[in-house]
Amino acid sequence: MNINLNEFPMTFDMLHLGLAILALLFFILYISKSTCTTKVEAIKEDSKDLAEEVAQPEVVEAAIKETPKPVQLKEATTDAALQLLSLLQQDARFIDFVQEDLSNYSDADIGAAARVVHEGSQKTLNNYFTLKPVRSEEEEARITLAEGFNASEVRLTGNVVGDAPFTGTLVHKGWKVTEVKLPKLAAGHDTSIVAAAEVEL
Fold first, then answer.
1. Which SS3 state, helix, strand or coil, does residue 97 take?
2. Which of 5, 86, 89, 94 has the fewest Cβ atoms surrounding its Cβ within 10 A?
């Protein structure tokens, strides 16, 4: 078979140009469809794997256990603390006593001052707080702490090994505040002034 190259058109007319553009468009559409199909299949495969993992309870439990819970810290309000400090200063001269340099005083002088601080502090506590022991047993009694005991109420000391139940000696009963009756503060009161300066006229 002989092919005569002279019979092929040597120039593009509008029909041939249109056919070439149409062929190019079909080629681009084919490539796009192939790419999209591949991506859709990959997404379907990933979704299937994820669904299978989520369907397994042990996988969910392991994920929950591995996720550490952030520690939530409460910000302490200073007004109540400063108010208590002010009341202790007012009733017991607490700040004066603690801030005093006691190196130049005899033990008898310090003991006399401590009695004043003790009586005033006791008065403040009794007036504004209701206290009760954390444990009802007598000190030096042998007690057993069952599994799940409240670690914020009981602090273990000594040779702490293993898990509860723990048996030991009650060294201190602890204290728990059951009611607080601090006076209400006036609006705009500056709690940072725990003891006003005194000027005698």
1. helix
2. 5
